[in-house]
Specification:
Blueprint lengths: L3 E4 L6 E4 L4 E3 L6 H7 L4 E3 L6 E3 L4 E5 L4 E5 L8 H18 L13 E3 L2 H11 L4 H19 L2 H10 L6 H16 L3 H17 L1 H26 L3 H9 L4 H10 L6 H13 L2 H41 L3 H8 L5 H16 L3 H18 L3 H11 L3 H10 L6 H15 L6 H27 L1
Parallel strand pairs: 3-6, 7-8
Antiparallel strand pairs: 1-2, 4-5, 6-7
Helix pairs in contact: 4-6, 5-7, 6-7, 7-8, 8-10, 11-12, 12-13, 12-14, 13-15, 14-15, 16-17, 17-19, 18-19
Amino acid sequence: MPQTRVSCPRCHQPVMADISQLFDVNVDPQAKQKILSGQFNVIHCPNCGYEGSIATPLVYHDPDKELLLTYFPPELGLPVNEQERLVGPYIQQVLAKLPNEKRKGYLLRPQNMLTIQTMIEKILEGEGITKEMLQAQQQRLSLLQRLLAATDDSIAEIARQEDAQIDENFFSTLSRLVESAMAENDEQAAKRLLAVQQKLLDATTTGRKLKSQIEETQAAAKSLQDASQKGMTRESLLDLLVDAPNETRLNALVSMARGGIDYQFFQILSDRVDQAKGEQKQKLAALRDRLVQLTQEIDKQVQAQMQSVRSLMDEILKQDNIEEAVEEALPAVNDLFVEILNEELDLARRNKNQDRLAKLERIVNVLQQASAPPPGVALIEELLGAKTEEERVQILSSHAEEITPEFLEAFNNLIAQTQGAPSQQKDEQELAVQLQAAYRTALRFSMQQNLKK
């Protein structure tokens, strides 16, 4: 993009910057994210040091949502006729890029947004995110800030006062923040967030409910594991389901053992119903009805997930740049996606559909590259595989350019994480010892290389 000459808002000196005024999702799939992130039309003035966004007219277009939005900064003081003159060429660009069948009436009625915030809210509304939902999220974040700033003793009191607001959505937001802090290696923030989370699990109505669900799910997993060690059968699975102390445990067991609850399982259960009497007969019959309902719900969810994955895969295969489409879809790639991808590969090979097979293999290549460990991790794994100090030195010599201060810092952080783990298992202790030995070798190697230089 050619740079545009603009004036710095602070010192009014001319500055060259990347300025965009048309954000067309039809042309640039990232246009929506650019607007929502606010990271656009940002300038850095070398004269006064100002860094921030610059006020400029904007046009946003999303044909799928039938949105054509305009924004004119009030500080520009543009009259209506001047606004129409400025927006006209951009609308013509939008029309030129649209096929005839997508040119609809909304293009004749651009909606003028009074502020950038109202434009963002309008875009999010098209995604099903209402203003009320945004306000609720802001309230959750404000409450979370209060909790993070509070002393440990006062968290319980705040939780008692705001019990209704600390719902499942609040805990979901808190969990995402914990994951984000961990991903950014912000250990201090992660520890504080986890500490607040633990206190809220004990001090709030929703927290106690979630904690109970977690405990029941863990108990269900343990009971299935114990039964498997003894030799799991349909009869033993049925016994676990009959003895489930509550609905939460039952749901967890069914979810984990859905594959074993098949036609033969229901035959065994029906035989027990026929043989039982009185209250036991009623209990088993009710259990059968409930299991039919739960398995149907699980199957519907699986079918919906499979359909969603297949739709995503079909959409990727339609794109000219499959690699770019896969990279954009990586957050949605899961085990089910990989499973269906393998099925599609087998089907394409059997049908000798070389064109589809080639496209599917391009998806595989991107996923393999994305899942490959970073070079530093691969090198550490290679060092751990070495049996002697001499072997480690040989490995380091063949990767001398990779032994940078950044690599050593990452290596040291990995050791710190291992030492901070609460587990006392023997294999983890041995791994920590191997890591430390490999790190010392790498550190000595780096120092020797620096001395030679």
